[in-house]
């Protein structure tokens, strides 16, 4: 029987530092900034600024294992390679399940973008599914063209996006009620410290996302240098920008009037022409850049999974532009089904929260083992630190992972907790049973 070929070996290494930066920023600033920030304000009020600082700290701690590992080798299979390298075959199999489940969220970006475009252009509400389908189809076709087209589109979207959000902050900062912002009037620390921390857990979904660029390792020019640096700088930059936006959002209008999205605040602080710029450039480009990024990056780990035998090898065929078009088409079809059927993607996300917590904790726990796993590469890493310090960081990362998991899971209903446990059992069984016929091949290189 012929040996399976890992198609990540033949992908073009074209993405530079700024391409990866555009990918990371576009992924972080997704639907979260528009919907999660008002939700956090509803939980903790004007103390949401502190929630963002805590969320950024949690996000950076969770990214440390990835930063260290990516500073050593090119992870051609992205998160899949990372888990196989750090935790072994069974947990690599679990990553197959989490990766496939993660793509069900594609439908949410098209639907959310449609919800902003419809009132903007005066289209009937009944056209939402058609608009969402059209958006999803557009970015599917664009991603078939190749990684060059993806990078150009992504960078353009992110430039417009960042400019729109900065405009929101600059125009709104002078309209904040500074004198009453930190007054304890019932809308500051609304639910005490625990409420502020609960809001932080929610906002980690808005500040996280930069680590997804490890999926571009096979196509990066210098992943060992660029990926760790991009993860750090993009997270810090976006978190700082979010903190300013949150300060404005919570300080311009009375907390109860902020609403479910930032649209109410934007309408209050921006003149009509700039309001439309914000809706298109801020909300529109935030969702579009995340959708574009998700379609491009999600296919790469699947290539290595196919090479190892978790999925059919025929699934990993590349077109002339070296795009895994079968995988991309599969994800597109899933997105279309959820878009047109109206099935709840958020419910599926809640069903797999614990599984994501388990994989996050495993990576944190194995951080101290990197020098043993990759001794030569670790010695060359610019992020190399003494083993004692590495153990301290590992403990901190594990504690943060457990704490975030607690905050996220505490609001799940007993039924959802049971379903989450079932998902974990299914993922473990898949890893153990299917793993018996799997021979993990090294899908990483020195770079």
Which band does the percent of strand residues land in?
under 5%
- Percent in helix: over 70%
The geometry reads as globular
Give the beta-strand count: 2
Class per helix and strand makeup: mainly alpha
Radius of gyration: 22 Å
How are strands sequenced across the largest beta sheet?
Answer: 1-2
Separate helix tally:
20
Terminal Cα span: 31 Å
Keywords for this entry:
447 residues; mainly alpha; two-stranded antiparallel sheet; 20 helices; 2 strands; globular
What does this structure look like?
Helix 1 crosses helix 12, helix 4 runs antiparallel to helix 5 and helix 7 packs across helix 12. The model has no long low-confidence stretch (mean pLDDT 86). The relative contact order is 0.21. The protein contains 20 helices and 2 strands. It starts with 16 loop residues before the first helix and ends with a strand. The protein is mainly alpha-helical and 447 residues long.
What is the topological layout?
Layout: H1 17-28, H2 31-44, H3 48-70, E1 74-75, H4 78-87, H5 89-102, H6 106-121, H7 128-144, H8 147-173, H9 192-207, H10 223-252, H11 263-269, H12 272-297, H13 299-308, H14 325-341, H15 345-351, H16 353-365, H17 370-373, H18 375-380, H19 387-409, H20 414-435, E2 444-445
Antiparallel strand pairs: 1-2
């Amino acid at each position: 029987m012929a040996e399976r070929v890992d198609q990540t070996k033949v992908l073009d290494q074209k993405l530079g530092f700024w391409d990866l930066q555009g990918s990371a920023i576009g992924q972080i600033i997704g639907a979260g900034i528009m919907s999660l920030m008002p939700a956090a304000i509803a939980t903790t009020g004007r103390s949401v600024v502190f929630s963002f600082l805590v969320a950024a700290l949690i996000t950076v701690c969770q990214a440390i294992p990835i930063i260290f590992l990516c500073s050593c080798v090119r992870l051609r299979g992205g998160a899949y390679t990372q888990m196989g390298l750090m935790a072994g075959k069974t947990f690599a199999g679990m990553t197959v399940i989490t990766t496939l489940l993660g793509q069900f969220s594609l439908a949410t970006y098209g639907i959310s973008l449609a919800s902003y475009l419809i009132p903007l252009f005066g289209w009937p509400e009944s056209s939402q599914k058609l608009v969402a389908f059209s958006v999803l189809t557009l970015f599917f076709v664009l991603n078939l063209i190749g990684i060059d087209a993806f990078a150009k589109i992504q960078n353009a979207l992110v430039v417009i996006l960042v400019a729109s959000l900065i405009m929101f902050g600059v125009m709104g900062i002078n309209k904040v009620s500074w004198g009453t912002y930190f007054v304890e009037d019932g809308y500051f620390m609304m639910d005490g410290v625990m409420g502020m921390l609960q809001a932080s857990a929610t906002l980690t979904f808005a500040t996280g996302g930069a680590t997804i660029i490890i999926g571009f390792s096979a196509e990066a020019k210098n992943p060992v240098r660029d990926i760790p640096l991009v993860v750090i700088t993009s997270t810090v930059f976006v978190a700082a920008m979010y903190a300013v936006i949150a300060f404005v959002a919570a300080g311009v209008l009375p907390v109860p009037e902020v609403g479910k999205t930032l649209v109410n605040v934007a309408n209050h602080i921006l003149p009509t022409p700039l309001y439309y710029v914000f809706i298109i450039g801020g909300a529109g480009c935030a969702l579009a850049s995340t959708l574009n990024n998700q379609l491009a990056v999600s296919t790469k780990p699947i290539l290595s999974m196919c090479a190892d035998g978790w999925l059919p090898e025929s699934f990993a065929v590349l077109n002339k532009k070296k795009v895994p078009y079968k995988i991309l088409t599969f994800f597109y079809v899933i997105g279309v089904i959820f878009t047109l059927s109206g099935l709840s993607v958020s419910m599926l996300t809640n069903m797999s929260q614990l599984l994501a917590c388990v994989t996050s904790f495993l990576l944190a726990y194995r951080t101290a083992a990197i020098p043993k796993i990759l001794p030569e590469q670790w010695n060359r890493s610019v992020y190399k630190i003494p083993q004692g310090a590495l153990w301290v960081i590992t403990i901190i990362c594990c504690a943060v992972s457990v704490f975030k998991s607690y905050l996220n899971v505490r609001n799940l209903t007993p039924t959802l907790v049971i379903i989450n446990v079932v998902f974990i059992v299914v993922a473990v069984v898949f890893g153990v049973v299917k793993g018996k016929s799997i021979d993990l091949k090294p899908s990483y290189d020195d770079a």
